[in-house]
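Why this split exists: single-chain examples teach little about how molecules sit against one another. For that reason, every record in the complexes split bundles all components of an assembly together and asks for one structure covering all of them. Below is a record exactly as it appears in the raw files.
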Amino acid sequence: MALLELDSVHKRFGGLKAVNDVSFAVEEKSIKAVIGPNGAGKTTLFNLIAGSLPSTSGSIVFNGQELNRRKPYQIAGLGIARTFQNIKMFNGMTALENVMVGRHVQSRAGFISSMFRLPRTWQEEKDIYTKAMGLLDFLEIGEYANMEATSLSFGQQRAVELARALALEPTLLLLDEPAAGLNIYETAEVGRLITKIRDLGITVLLVEHDMSLVMDISDEIVVLSFGEKIAEGLPVDIQNNSEVIKVYLGE
Amino acid sequence: MKKYLAFIPFFLFVVTVHLLTSWTDTLYYLTQMTMSAYYCLLIIGLCVVMGYAGQISLGHAGFFAIGGYISAALTTSNLIEYRDLPLVRLLDSMGMLMTGQDIYGDTLIVITPWMACLAAVILAILLAYLIGIPALKLKGHYLAMATLGFGIIIYRIVLATPYFGEADGIAEVPAFVLFGDISVSGDFSSRVSNYYIAWILLTLGMVLLINLIDSRVGRALRAIHGAEDAADSMGVDTTAYKLNVFVLSAVFAALAGVFMTHYNGSIGPSEAGVMKSVRYVAIVAVGGMAHLWGALIMGITLNFLSLRGVFGTYDDAVFGVILIFIMLFAPNGLLRINFRHVATQLLFFRRAGKKEA
């Protein structure tokens, strides 16, 4: 059984069908990409999976559990982490603290134990710190740990966001346009990091505009256009699919 | 350990104030310093709600009044007529009652301050949940509106209820014996010990909140303030966190009210007034919002000046002006004022004026 299964998912905003009858499955430990022209409904689809928006109908099943009607924090608790198209760093917090927030679902301390610094909280804090630091090193930005996250360059913020998502120890990682705003070298770099993440055994589902990146790293591709799925398959097949070419280049 | 370093100058300050006042024979200043410390207990709690969780409460004077009034009412209502009731007997057998004498020498049987304090805190928690649960489910400034309404209701209740002494409030509140000979009371002979009790309680509050900010919970709160949807997608139950931190600050406010009332020996309806809540918000803002030490420093300074009567009859107006000034010229607080920002703001006003002319 696939890790994530979408079955005829719909999302309507008034009369607009943003996502219309989309079904596909994401196999475990693979990289799957969702592509499509602007306004195809890619980000909406992402928000449906992550719980930021409720779907109008259809089912989204992750690891045998229905995601629809669950809140984003509950979905995060099930092991789905995400990044955002327009990077969302936590203002006023260092890069390290941003990643430490990512350890939230993997730690327990509540108000009382945090205020009184109980021994197990102390141990847990040390744990959170070590894990977060390790992730920053894994993504090769350890030296910026104590800088305010919003003061870092765009590419570095991307890496911090990636580290923050990984801190959750997710089984599924949702990446919303990880190469947006990056130059060709940085894009290649992000591509390398994503394969590095997949090699850890984490399933990746990404939305992306950058064809070079998608064709390079994806195991499978889904193509959306005006909210509908028009193709699904291996990168080679998608490259030669006449409908996809029509949607992207016109006739 | 670096985060605790600021306590060293803090202790030096507290001791210096005591020594200076005792050398110059002006110990009466300690009374206002003690009261300022109790107000600060409320203010640092509010600081966490406003600065770190990004919510505004305009009803903290209400929680302060709940603490003060519940504690005052329970420790002054004589239960001697009801001593044969099973409930009163039960309380007595559990050691929750104490006897005393009123000014005419008649015997009083009242609830102990510890029990009254517990009751006040429990009531504050219940009411905070009651307001917080519906208000914090929504995004936006609904908490400010709900707490504003709550503050007004509390004010009218204490002003109109004979049990709470109406406009006179409640007087002759007994001392709160913490342990042994140490008690919170307005007795002149224990002015110095009360000064230190207040500052130790405030220190305790500061340590707890500083720990909280630098913890899993504190990071979650700051994340909510920084980017709520991102915090949500990191597994932070944003509603629950906002609610719990609001309840925590209500507890701080209620405790401040309890101690202040036992220290003063009385409480009046002015403590519950809406302008008091506005004052607390202004002090947190002037201290720099997400800045516990800033809130503490400003809380001590402004409350002390206000209690000494420096602002005269313009007391409330001063805090209103402070709020406007801070929002316009120093949104990061007085301690982190940016003079370039002040200059541009003034310039902007001039230009706006020209356009109109």
